[in-house]
Specification:
translation release factor activity; Ribosome-associated protein; Pep_chain_release_fac_I_sf; ribosome binding
């Protein structure tokens, strides 16, 4: 897992929802922002992979934004936002293994066909015959 937290910038805002004075006065919600193109931690190939997999989360300026407003303090929300964005990006750079095509063995094919035949015969025997 790569830690590119040094490249993140943070923006704070007031949290929404219930909470009384704390919500109305204190800017506890945190948005973690990361410019994908300016990253020194990832190769060009990995940046392309990140852009394609996280396209719906990256805005038109090429900035990936993750918001956190679960906790009551700005410090906790900053930590949560950082963990979220690191997990997102690190999951995006993992390449999927290509599927190897395989053929079922003759024994497997025979087993499947005999099971089908057995079920067919069972159902046939249930029929009312004249």
């Amino acid at each position: 897992m790569r830690d590119f937290a040094k490249e993140l910038t943070y923006k704070t805002s007031r949290s929404s929802g219930a909470g009384g004075q704390n919500v109305n006065k204190v800017e506890t919600a945190v948005a973690a922002l990361w410019k994908v193109e300016d990253s020194a931690f990832f190769s060009e190939e990995e940046k392309v992979l990140i852009k394609t997999k996280l396209a719906n989360r990256i805005n038109s300026e090429g900035i990936l934004q993750v918001n956190a407003s679960e906790a009551r303090t700005q410090l906790q929300n900053r930590k949560i936002a950082t963990e979220k964005i690191l997990a997102l990006v690190n999951a995006a750079i993992i390449k999927k293994k290509p599927r190897k095509k395989t053929m079922p063995s003759k024994a497997q094919i025979e087993k499947r066909l005999s099971a089908k035949k057995k079920i067919s015969e069972k159902k046939e025997s249930r029929r009312f015959k004249f």
